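In this supplementary section we document a worked example of the pipeline. Step one takes a protein sequence of length 500 as its only input; no multiple sequence alignment statistics are reported here. Step two produces a three-dimensional model, which step three serialises into structure tokens for compact storage. The input and output of this example are shown verbatim.
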Amino acid sequence: MTGADSISPARHENLAQRASRGVVMTMGGLWGRAALQMVSTMVLARLLTPADFGLIAMVAAVMGIAELVRDFGMTGAIIQAQHLSESVWRSLLWLSLFIGAGLSLIVALCAPLIAALYGEPQLVAITLFMAPGVFMSGLAMPLQALAAKQLKFGTLAVLDVSSMAAGVVAGISGALLGWGVWSLVAMAAGQVIVRLVVLWWVVRPVFGRPRVDKEAWPLVGQGASIFGAELLGYAEKNLDNVIIGATMGPAALGQYSRAYALFLLPLQQMNGPLGRVALPVLSTLRDDGERYRRYVRSAGLAIGYLTLPTYAVAAGVAQPLVGVLLGPGWETAATLFALLAVAGFAQAIGRLRTWLYISLGHSHRQFVYDLIARPIVVAGYVLGIMWGGLTGLVITYGALSLVLLVPGFGFAIRKTFVRPSDIAAPLVRPAIMAALAFGASFVLSRWVPTDVDLLQIAVGVLGALLAISPLFLVRGYRADVGRLWGFVASMRGGKSSRAE
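The serialised model returned by step three reads:
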């Protein structure tokens, strides 16, 4: 970090080529991370109990609030900033350090309260050991945001794999040694430590003397709006854990947390790479409406074809799939995983809405919308669990998430150059494909006259592929393939794709 120019992304290269290469590098890193995560899930689910996972989920649900406060929306604010001076950058470093240290102390002091909330005394020790992770994440956050702003996607891809590998080794080693729930604590610690060390080595930050420059406060204000929206989103996504843990205990929460972790994998490994690239690219293009809209349509097309059929097939073969991944004793998790597919559709599409808010500089608008929408979903958790227990909660969550897409996007594009057709049109054909894929995989996997999980999965997936293959004889689907292929071609150094 030697000057302000090194903090701004390059603006004269082929943006489409850099973005598409960034997607591939990021996807490679996150898929490598997903493979490691899958291995750890398969091994640890057989070495540990659902209650062990439930105890960690109890602490994580509360600690995640501290993580959000620690970030304070600054990751999004740093990425969307058109220019970032050296003095502002150093101010953000000091803010992150101070906030992280303070919140780490607060989490440690709240350990008895967390244990009392769930009625689990052993959560005191677990919380005390996990609290320093908030401080280390506070140091890592601005470093990772800067790397994303500078489009260093290869570095971030290596970081994803190396940090997960360290955590998996620590977690599995601890489980084999009989550490129980503490092996999961070790897994989380390994990831945080390696991430901080690698980012520090790559960015090599220079803090200077402790001060917060007045030029940093507008960026902090922008981050505050992003933080408000993220806090509401976090409440929506984690109060279900608190409600389940407090009313049904760690075993039920363990089943739910494993189902939810599997449900998140397609979002993390497919939408994650797109989002990491889309935010800095769209932020750069927000003064060029036509190019911005083309990128939005391309992002919607990629989300549709990557995510929707994947969730559909996974839901269709949920029972044998979870049997292979987690082993016996996780049948409840398999049912929940299948039902969560509806929420998966909604969240995959909803990521695009978040990118619109942040890249257009409308974080205040996002906060206003989430202030209304998120409490509706949280209320749905309470009503759902009262109505039908775990399955009732999941059904209500999926239905509300899907219904709220319409007003959510309507408010996001209101009085902007983005049109409703830019959002809806790219998703129609992937949605039809997903419906056919689910029906075929669900029926055919149950038609197999055996309880061999791998055979049921193979038949279900093959059936889905056969069901959707005739679609590519339709002109619209062939055109979509051409657009996606043009995106791939731009990675190889060709001319700018039509996405640009």
